[in-house]
Each structure stands twice: as structure tokens, then as C-alpha cells.
Recover the amino acids of this structure.
């Protein structure tokens, strides 16, 4: 199986372990995490706080270093993958630089990676259109709403054409209505760009609505308790959330969360 | 309009308190002079007057009160005396005159500006080093703090003597004392500013595999700008104090410090006070100018709304 290069997974974790040494003793953030993410998957990580979902995402991004097991991204170590610009990362807050316009914010990674000015402009226009922010390039972040700022930060993560998009509760700080709208847009964007997306959330409806696979995690130690392959079609209008299939998947996620919590207490 | 009234009220209060304070401060000298001129003073005996409180004396000799605001060498000059002196030594004197406050102010200002530039440059360099190197953080920061615990008035003569012995004199020693006072707020402010980007911002740059210098130029330095300007305002005022203090121990013949010194030698209190006010006005102008530059820079950066 491991020699089968044609269908090599995008992200593969084997018996991944991560222990933080803190002043209050070691914290077992990830324990024996096994997961394979294929190209084009939309994978959500859901679980209560402290379950290691963000930590796992940060391991993929080489922002944390696992203390055990193996983790490959595009068949490389996370560090190598980062150097090859394998992924774009979207944080919980938009984190736009207040002294840069939206266009200049999106150019930030492009400047760092050494793209030519002409190419920078071209890419900015392309991703602004992808996140539906045409005409806002010259605005400063404070002139935009929270939802628009987060869209701009997604555009920034898309600007350098990474295959993988890692999103750490990107809509967590936004209200329900804006969040619904952004979820819909994110699905459209995913369909157009065919990216592989890793998405951390603590909202069950959001996870079920967006994902092709849902990874349910539980805390102390952080581990995977269930991986659900969604039976929902890739094409998803918002009202799919009222269908029996949707409710069934949501139910299974909730059960998984409860089970994980049950044996932790 | 409301603010205008508030500002006027504060100024009016200060002026009233000042005039009131002139009465007890100057009454004894005034009464002696008045008596010599033939006026009848209560109580008539000099000895009695010496033992009496100043307020009591003023109440006993109300006719003498206006004269407490008009003396040649009062203990405490009245506001209008200082204002007139300021007017005469700035507007009415040619700026080439040795009695022009503009001339003296310029001498001090040039040392201040040179010291401020040196201090700011040094402060920024140290802050960059401190933020990027743990060794520097541990080794330089304590010394920077210790340097500010030494009273500058004790250190200034030594700086001047040491520099004189190696042949450096004139504006440089004053500028160095001035820089000595102004680098510290810049170091503290810039260290804080360069460290102001949060973990998320730094993580974001890591996901781009950005180098340290890219992180500095694209994130840390722009993020530190508001902190820098706050420190610069404190620093420029400290610079001015440093330049004035640098003029005191040398018996300098020019500069606001020299003016203060000369005033105290000859009991010219009006001259001292007008030099003090000139220094205060100069400091206010420098801080105000920095405020204008701050607004312009931050607006250009898009950080001021």
C-alpha cells in the first residue's frame, strides 16, 4: 500500500503523538492519531476545547513538532512541505496588517516569496474575485466588516496557489448569519479550486454542512474517536441542512462527541 | 467651545494663584523699599516686621500690594513681568544679540536636536538588538535601566571633563548628555513596539517561511510605529533637559542653561523665569511638531482613521 505512489494521500498521520512540557507537568495534546486525507477532501476537525484539533492542524503546518509517530504532507515532512508552499493557513482572526490595504495584505506572502510585481497584481485580482471582494483592494482593513476581513484573509491564503488550505476556526468569531453566508461561499470556492481543506470548528452544523469527512476528537489525551465519511453530495445548497441525511450525520457527530466526553470524565 | 473654556479656566486659575503668591513672597522687600521712599509702613519697626508673617504684613499694608508685582528683582516675578521680558528678549531684540532668547534658544535647540538624533538612533539600534538577541536582552537592558538611575546633574560634569581632555568640546558634549537622557524612552518604547505583534501574526509569517529580516521589515517595524512616536515625544523633552543640564556645569556663555545660570548669579529672577518659560515653550513646540509628524505618518500608513 505504502509504495502505491499514484494515489498517495495529501496528508498522512501514523501514530502521531505530541506532549507539551509545561510548568504544571506534561500535557498529552495528541495521542496515537492516525488519519489519511486524500486530495480534494474537505476534512473537518470537531471536538471540545483541548481535544487537540488545532494542535493537529498546527502539526500539519509545521508550527508544532510532534514528539512521536510520523506525519507527511504531500509525501514530505511538514517542514519541507511548508518550504514548498504546500499550504495556506487561515487563523481564527483575520490578522490583516492595519497599515496595508486589502490588496497589499494579500500581496504580503507574494512579496515574501518573491513574485514579480506584475504577477502579484494579477494574483491579487484573481483571489479578490474568488472571495467576492472585487473593488475592495484599495480599502484598509478597518473599512471592512469582520466577515469581509476574514474573506480577505482567505484570499491571502489562496494567493500563492497552495494545494492545501488549513483553516483554524476561521468563522468562529463571526455571527451566525455571516457564518452561513461564508460557509456557502467557501463551498463554492472549494468546488472551483479543488483544494484540499483541513477545517477546525466547534460547530456541528458547520462541520456537517462543509465536509466530505468529519474527524471527531476528544480531549485528555487529545485523540480521534470517530471519522465519518459524509454521504451528502458535493453540491450542497444551504437547505440541505433540513434533510434527514444531514440530521443523521449531525446525530452521529454528536454521539461521537458525547462518547469521547463520557470516557474522559 | 467647552474645551476652550476649560483650558482658559485652568490658565486663569494658575495666573490668579501666581499673582496671589507674589504678594507674600515679595512683600518684605517692597515694604523696606517703600519705607525708604518715605511711606508709612505698619508696623514701623524693621524688627517687628521681620518677626511678622508675610500674609499679616500684606494685610496691614494693603497699599503696598500692587508694588509686589512691579519690583526689579522680585523673589517671585509676576506673570506679566515674565511675559514682558519674554517679549522683549525674543521679538524686540535682534536674534544676533547676546541677550536674545531666540539666540540662546537656538544654541540649546541645536544641541538638543543633535542629541535627540543620536539618542533616537542609538535607542532604535539597541531595541532591535534586544528584540532579536536574547543575550543582548539579558546584558544590555539592565545597563540601560541603571544608566537612568544616575542623576544626570552628577554625570554631566564628568562627561564634559572627560570629553574635554580628549579634545572634544562645543556642541558635542551637550549633545551626548542630551542623547544619554533621550535614548532610554526610545529603547523601552521600541522594544515594546517591536514585540507588539501577537503570536498569530508571527505564526502567519512562519507559514510563509519568512526570514527574520522579512519579519522585521514587514511586520515588527511597521507595528512599532505608534510606540516609536510615543517614545520620541518623551525622548525629545528629555533631550532638551539634557542639553540645558549640559550647559550648567561648563559656565557656558550661550544657551538657555547659560541664561539660567547667569540669571541666578546676578539675582535676575525675571531672566531665570523667562528662560524657564522659553525652555517649556520650546519643549511644547518640539512635542507638538512630533505629534504632527506622527499624525501624518500614521495617516499615510492607513493606521489613523
Amino acid at each position: 500500500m505504502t509504495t502505491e505512489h499514484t494515489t498517495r494521500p495529501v496528508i498522512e498521520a501514523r501514530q502521531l503523538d505530541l506532549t507539551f512540557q509545561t510548568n504544571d507537568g506534561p500535557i498529552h495534546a495528541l495521542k496515537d492519531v492516525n488519519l489519511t486525507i486524500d486530495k480534494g477532501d474537505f476534512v473537518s476537525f470537531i471536538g471540545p476545547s483541548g481535544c487537540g484539533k488545532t494542535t493537529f492542524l498546527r502539526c500539519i503546518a509545521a508550527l508544532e513538532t510532534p514528539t512521536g509517530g510520523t506525519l507527511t504532507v504531500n509525501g514530505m515532512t511538514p517542514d519541507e512541505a511548508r518550504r514548498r508552499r504546500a499550504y495556506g493557513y487561515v487563523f481564527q482572526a483575520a490578522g490583516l496588517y492595519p497599515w496595508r490595504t486589502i490588496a497589499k495584505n494579500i500581496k504580503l506572502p507574494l512579496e515574501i516569496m518573491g513574485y514579480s510585481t506584475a504577477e502579484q497584481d494579477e494574483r491579487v485580482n484573481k483571489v479578490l474575485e474568488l472571495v467576492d471582494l472585487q473593488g475592495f483592494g484599495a480599502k484598509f482593513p478597518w473599512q471592512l466588516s469582520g466577515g469581509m476581513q476574514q474573506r480577505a484573509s482567505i484570499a491571502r491564503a489562496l494567493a500563492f496557489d497552495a494545494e492545501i488550505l488549513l483553516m483554524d476556526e476561521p468563522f468562529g468569531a463571526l455571527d451566525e448569519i455571516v457564518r452561513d453566508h461564508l460557509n456557502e461561499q467557501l463551498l463554492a470556492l472549494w468546488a472551483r479550486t479543488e483544494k484540499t481543506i483541513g477545517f477546525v470548528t466547534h460547530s456541528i452544523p458547520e462541520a456537517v454542512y462543509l465536509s466530505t469527512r468529519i474527524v471527531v476528537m476528544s480531549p485528555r489525551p487529545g485523540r480521534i474517536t470517530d471519522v465519518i465519511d459524509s454521504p451528502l453530495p458535493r453540491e450542497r445548497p444551504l437547505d440541505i441542512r433540513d434533510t434527514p441525511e444531514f440530521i443523521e450525520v449531525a446525530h452521529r457527530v454528536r454521539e461521537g462527541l458525547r462518547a469521547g466526553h463520557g470516557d474522559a470524565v | 467651545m467647552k474645551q476652550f473654556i476649560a483650558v482658559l479656566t485652568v490658565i486663569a486659575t494658575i495666573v490668579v494663584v501666581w499673582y496671589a503668591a507674589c504678594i507674600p513672597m515679595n512683600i518684605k522687600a517692597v515694604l523696606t523699599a517703600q519705607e525708604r521712599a518715605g511711606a508709612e509702613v505698619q508696623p514701623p519697626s524693621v524688627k517687628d516686621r521681620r518677626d511678622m508673617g508675610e500674609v499679616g504684613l500684606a494685610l496691614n499694608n494693603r497699599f503696598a500690594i500692587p508694588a509686589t508685582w512691579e519690583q526689579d528683582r522680585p523673589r517671585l516675578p509676576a506673570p506679566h513681568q515674565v511675559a514682558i521680558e519674554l517679549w522683549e528678549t525674543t521679538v524686540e531684540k535682534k536674534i544676533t544679540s547676546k541677550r536674545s532668547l531666540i539666540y540662546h534658544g537656538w544654541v540649546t535647540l541645536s544641541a538638543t536636536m543633535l542629541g535627540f538624533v543620536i539618542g533616537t538612533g542609538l535607542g532604535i539600534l539597541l531595541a532591535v538588538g534586544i528584540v532579536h538577541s536574547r543575550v543582548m536582552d539579558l546584558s544590555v537592558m539592565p545597563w540601560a535601566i541603571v544608566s537612568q538611575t544616575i542623576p544626570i546633574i552628577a554625570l554631566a560634569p564628568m562627561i564634559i571633563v572627560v570629553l574635554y581632555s580628549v579634545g572634544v568640546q562645543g556642541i558635542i558634549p551637550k549633545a551626548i548628555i542630551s542623547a544619554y537622557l533621550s535614548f532610554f524612552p526610545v529603547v523601552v518604547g521600541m522594544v515594546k513596539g517591536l514585540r507588539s505583534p501577537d503570536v498569530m501574526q508571527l505564526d502567519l509569517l512562519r507559514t510563509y517561511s519568512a526570514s527574520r529580516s522579512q519579519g522585521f521589515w514587514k511586520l515588527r517595524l511597521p507595528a512599532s510605529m505608534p510606540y516609536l512616536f510615543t517614545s520620541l515625544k518623551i525622548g525629545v523633552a528629555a533631550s532638551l533637559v539634557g542639553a540645558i543640564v549640559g550647559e550648567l556645569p561648563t559656565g557656558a556663555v550661550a544657551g538657555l542653561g547659560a541664561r539660567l545660570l547667569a540669571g541666578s548669579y546676578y539675582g535676575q529672577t525675571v531672566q531665570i523665569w523667562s528662560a524657564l518659560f522659553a525652555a517649556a515653550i520650546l519643549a511644547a513646540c518640539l512635542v507638538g511638531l512630533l505629534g504632527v509628524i506622527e499624525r501624518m505618518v500614521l495617516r499615510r500608513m492607513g493606521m489613523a482613521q
